[in-house]
Amino acid sequence: ELLDMPDNICLEPGTGHLFMCEDSDYPGLSGRGDNFVRILTPNGMIADFARNILEGFEETEFAGATFSPDGTTLFFNIQTPGITVAVWGDFKNFKA
């Protein structure tokens, strides 16, 4: 129920947080059609990190999550229309 076709994963350096990009462009299968980047923590908690609310492309998947070498910036893409997002901050103190 919490995950909806996660198909891209990225391990956050130094924390054990697993970032997952969902591919939920099939509302008939999932019942939702929402696409999230979600985090799985080492203790098994799942939290929403980002949701695609891009008007006209809400059902487009996230892809290609990766961290910068120093772990301070997370990059991911919204597959269509081809947007790359950079998010930076203190990820090590994220609490799910």
Query: How far apart, in Å, are the first and last alpha carbons?
Result: 17 Å
Total number of distinct structural domains: 1
Strand fraction equals 35-45%
What's the story with the biggest beta sheet? Answer: 4 strands, antiparallel
**Cα gyration radius (Å):** 13 Å
Mean pLDDT comes to 84
Q: Helicity level, as a percent range?
A: under 10%
**Largest sheet, order of strands side by side?**
1-2-3-4
The shape, in one word, is: globular
Number of β-strand runs? 7
How many alpha or pi helices? 1
Give helix and strand order, one letter per element, not per position.
Answer: EEHEEEEE
| Residue runs with pLDDT of under 50 for 5 or more positions | none
Structural class: mainly beta
Kindly describe this structure.
The chain is mainly β. It has one domain. The chain contains 1 helix and 7 strands; from the N terminus they run ββαβββββ. The strands form 2 sheets. It has a 4-stranded antiparallel β-sheet, with no helix packed on it. A 3-stranded antiparallel β-sheet has the order 5-6-7, with no helix packed on it. The longest helix has 4 residues. The radius of gyration is 13 Å and the shape is globular. The two termini are 17 Å apart. The model has no long low-confidence stretch (mean pLDDT 84).
Walk me through the topology.
Blueprint: E1 6-11, E2 18-22, H1 27-30, E3 36-40, E4 46-51, E5 62-67, E6 73-78, E7 83-88
Antiparallel strand pairs: 1-2, 2-3, 3-4, 5-6, 6-7
Summarize this, please?
With 96 residues, this protein is mainly beta. The chain has one helix and seven strands. The chain has one domain.
